[in-house]
Amino acid sequence: MYQRALAPTLKDAARRYPVVTLTGPRQSGKTTLVRAAFREHAYASLEEPDVRAFALEDPRGFLAQFEGPVILDEAQRTPDLFSYLQTLVDEDDRPGRFILTGSQNFLLRQSISQSLAGRTAVLHLLPLSLSELEGHRPLALRTIGRRLPSRSRTTDRDLMETLFTGFYPRIHDRGLDAGDWLSNYVQTYVERDVREILNVGDLEAFGRFVRLCAGRTGQLLNLTSLGNDCGITHTTAKRWLSILEASFLIALLRPHHRNFGKRLIKTPKLYFLDCGLLCYLLRIRSPEDLRPHAARGVVFESFVVSELLKAFVHAGREPDLYFWRDATGHEIDVLIEAGRELVAVEVKSGQTVVPDFFDGLMFWRGLVGDDEAPAALIHGGGETYRRRGVAVVSWSVL
């Protein structure tokens, strides 16, 4: 079993709140984590038809059978149960009584806001990070652009193989073929979740929409263009995109709001949270196909963005990640907001670091008026060092 960076935060939340809710995409390891973290808790999976039927038909009787604390897995399957949980918690608010998991953030948020607001801590578990896969300490966000990561964090993994395989735990646990597993994942989980949340009638159109989103990874989001290409309305495109975001398949990186004397782009950029899933949707069928592929750069950029997001989310923090671009095309791939300070991060998939990789970072420093502003260049090579006052960081130490 992989040691998940979220485990200490999860246990701490259970010492402070009567209910802890853990959400995340299907197959991200939620059940494994909560059962390992709370071994003394009873367990019930609301995914099982008979258990779910009991909870729906007799919620009081269902909850009364548990004498102590309990894990309720896939809790979004029984939304009415949340009102009964509220009553029990109001009567007895001992910390850690109920641990809830769910893979549909949209439905869980509705239930929590209606019944458990203020009574539950809400945490998110994404697929494995590279550090979790390697058994390293989590990435220390406060050091990015300031100090060089430890060389002991390096990996012997091949970059293309890593990007192609992605980070869903089951693929690595069982040594499964990534392409086969991800194909089944899309068909069985994504389509089922979409049916339950939106009751989408045309799953073929939705599948086309997901692939079009994959083709726009790392680009500014244009819902009108996306809808036109898919043959759906702007409103439908917006609704479908929100479901992909609530299902933890994509993330929207917002533009930074601070004005530095330039007219700024205000549209978010779209990224997939798992680079293996992105490769599958782009019809990249092997690591060898990825190496010369035109999308290699955006796949790598998506990987870096997702690793930075995991570092925030698995520490129980809201991600303070943005991008910056002005109307003339100057851009910083990622801005990390650290209090009053901003850390600029440039992402390049090339293994050889060339001088023009630093152009955006140098422009940024001039714009903010600080020649020593913290900055990092994350690249596809294996070396980590400092150059031009910038932390040049290998992907392998993330």
Explain what you see.
- The chain is built from 17 helices and 13 strands.
- It folds into two domains: 7-124, P-loop containing nucleotide triphosphate hydrolases (Rossmann fold, 3-Layer(aba) Sandwich); 130-397, no CATH class.
- 42% of the residues lie in helices and 17% in strands.
- It is globular and about 70 Å long.
- The strands form two sheets. The protein has an eight-stranded mixed sheet with strand order 7-6-8-9-10-11-13-12, sandwiched between helices. Strands 2-3-4-1-5 form a five-stranded parallel sheet, sandwiched between helices.
- It starts with 6 loop residues before the first helix and ends with a strand.
- The chain has helices spanning 7-14, 30-37, 49-57, 59-64, 81-91, 105-116, 130-134, 159-165, 169-174, 178-198, 203-215, 223-230, 234-246, 275-281, 287-290, 296-313, 359-368; strands at residues 19-23, 42-45, 70-73, 98-102, 120-124, 250-255, 269-272, 321-325, 331-338, 341-348, 375-379, 385-387, 390-394.
- The chain has 398 residues and is an alpha/beta fold.
Which SSEs are present, and which pair or pack?
Elements: H1 7-14, E1 19-23, H2 30-37, E2 42-45, H3 49-57, H4 59-64, E3 70-73, H5 81-91, E4 98-102, H6 105-116, E5 120-124, H7 130-134, H8 159-165, H9 169-174, H10 178-198, H11 203-215, H12 223-230, H13 234-246, E6 250-255, E7 269-272, H14 275-281, H15 287-290, H16 296-313, E8 321-325, E9 331-338, E10 341-348, H17 359-368, E11 375-379, E12 385-387, E13 390-394
Parallel strand pairs: 1-4, 1-5, 2-3, 3-4, 6-8, 10-11, 11-13
Antiparallel strand pairs: 6-7, 8-9, 9-10, 12-13
Helix pairs in contact: 5-6, 8-14, 11-12, 12-13
